[in-house]
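Whiteboard transcription, Tuesday session. T.W. wrote the structure tokens on the left side:
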């Protein structure tokens, strides 16, 4: 937990010049978190962790998140958008942190833990510790989940451990004046010339039959399993579909669901017979795969939503339960199954030809672009204007003036090229950089000094300095954590030695 609840922004720099703001926000609903299950017993520092041990750490993860411990979560990998990876990284990194805290002698005292708890925003009223809020939290948030004040104190202890270790590890980080000057280029307006290279299409690359056969042998491609179902659709009447009264619409939807459920029960004894008796029109779907993509026939819009249920059906259970897709309900009956099978050479041929042509076209574009850039550099070094040299090669040049580097992104210039301009000196040309519609190379004509009020320039300098220092501290901590994890020898038990 932190002294102030921070949904913070962390500024990181790329290479030595680009400062990017990354906002960390927790996107998961704590109530919906699935329990992390290890793939087996794990050893760390030679000690075996059981599923019970892991479950205990998962509870700490859940509590840290509920209390807004975003520094603890983010630094230990617990904010990954892949929830399984987030929980796993957090648990193992936390165990490493706890172990290293003991070795480094940075364990917080009981007084420090108590003091930090009293500053937590969740327990504050008008900037002061509110014991009533604390008691309510323990009673309503901790106890129903099997937590006690001990777990709360453990989370706070871990946060303090993290702060102390980060302070210790990152103490050597410094920022030189030269680094600041280079990083400030992100604010300096530039005049650039953009050399545009045309797209090389696949038509320019011939593919031999031997290459197609090699592709076929190397890539064992298959046709996915497909299915066709008979289905009955239950839709809202037009007046109900446009109903603005949510309560009434929910009532009609429930009636529709009940009708579909009654049909599904009867359909077990005979789908078409039940449909005929109910006066419902049975329809046949297009052939579709597991993703709901139609392979043959006319697809219905709801295929992606009903496909997962369709692929659960089999000969023993050919009729589905009620499947909802938006405001509609469906009951499905399995008609045909076309099993997955290997594609023949003739079926793979158009796929292979298209892919090989694309690969060759990209290679030709890169080779041609690199050769053209080399010629442009020679011409410029000989005193010829870039525009004239590019025209002689049949290339188009755009001139952009007075733009901050980030504004170049709005001119259909890829990020990689913009980043490289920050490293250029005037009269230098970047390498060829591929784009979606061809390629580019940027020539830096000039870089203007930072303008504007001195007060703003000072703020920019201070901000950049702090960004660089934060980035260096972050890298030092991550490097330390990586080495510490390696020393922990985290190993699945089956691989432990």
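and on the right, the sequence the group agreed on:
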């Amino acid at each position: 937990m932190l002294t102030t609840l921070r949904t913070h922004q962390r500024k990181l720099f790329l290479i030595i010049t680009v400062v990017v703001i990354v906002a960390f926000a927790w996107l998961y609903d704590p109530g919906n978190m699935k329990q992390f299950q290890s793939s087996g017993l794990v050893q760390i520092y030679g000690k075996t962790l059981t599923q019970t041990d892991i479950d205990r750490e998962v509870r700490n993860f859940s509590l840290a998140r509920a209390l807004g411990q975003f520094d603890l979560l983010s630094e230990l990998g617990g904010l990954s958008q892949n929830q399984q990876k987030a929980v796993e990284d957090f648990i193992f990194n936390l165990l490493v942190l706890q172990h290293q805290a003991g070795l480094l002698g940075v364990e917080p005292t009981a007084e420090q833990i108590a003091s930090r708890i009293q500053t937590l925003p969740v327990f504050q009223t008008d900037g002061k510790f509110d014991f009533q809020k604390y008691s309510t939290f323990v009673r309503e948030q901790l106890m129903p989940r099997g937590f006690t004040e001990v777990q709360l104190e453990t989370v706070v202890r871990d946060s303090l451990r993290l702060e102390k270790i980060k302070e210790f590890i990152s103490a050597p980080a410094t920022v030189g004046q030269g680094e600041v000057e280079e990083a400030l280029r992100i604010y300096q307006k530039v005049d650039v010339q953009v050399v545009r290279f045309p797209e090389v299409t696949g038509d320019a690359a011939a593919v031999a039959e031997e290459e197609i056969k090699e592709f076929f042998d190397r890539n064992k491609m298959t046709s996915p399993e497909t299915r066709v179902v008979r289905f009955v659709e239950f839709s809202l009447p037009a007046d109900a579909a446009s109903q603005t009264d949510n309560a009434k619409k929910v009532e009609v939807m429930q009636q529709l669901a009940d009708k579909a459920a009654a049909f599904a029960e009867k359909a077990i004894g005979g789908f078409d017979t039940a449909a005929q008796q109910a006066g419902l029109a049975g329809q046949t779907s297009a052939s579709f795969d597991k993703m709901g993509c139609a392979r043959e026939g006319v697809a219905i819009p709801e295929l992606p939503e009903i496909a997962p249920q369709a692929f659960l059906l089999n000969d023993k259970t050919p009729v589905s339960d009620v499947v909802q897709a938006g405001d509609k309900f469906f009951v499905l009956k399995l008609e045909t199954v076309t099993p997955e099978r290997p594609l023949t050479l003739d079926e793979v041929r158009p796929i292979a030809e298209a892919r090989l042509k694309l690969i060759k076209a990209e290679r030709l574009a890169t080779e041609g672009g690199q050769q053209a850039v080399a010629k442009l550099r020679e011409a410029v070094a000989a005193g010829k204007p870039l525009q004239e040299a590019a025209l002689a090669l049949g290339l188009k040049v755009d001139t952009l003036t007075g733009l901050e580097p980030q504004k170049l992104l709005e001119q259909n210039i890829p990020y990689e090229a913009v980043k490289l301009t920050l490293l250029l000196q005037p009269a230098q040309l970047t390498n060829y950089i591929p784009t979606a519609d061809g390629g580019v190379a940027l020539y830096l004509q000039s870089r203007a000094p930072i303008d504007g009020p001195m007060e703003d320039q000072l703020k920019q300098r201070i901000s950049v300095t702090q960004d660089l220092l934060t980035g260096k501290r972050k890298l030092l901590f991550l490097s330390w954590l990586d080495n510490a994890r390696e020393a922990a020898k985290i190993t699945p038990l089956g691989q432990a030695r």
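Someone added at the bottom: Confidence is low (pLDDT under 50) at residues 1-39.
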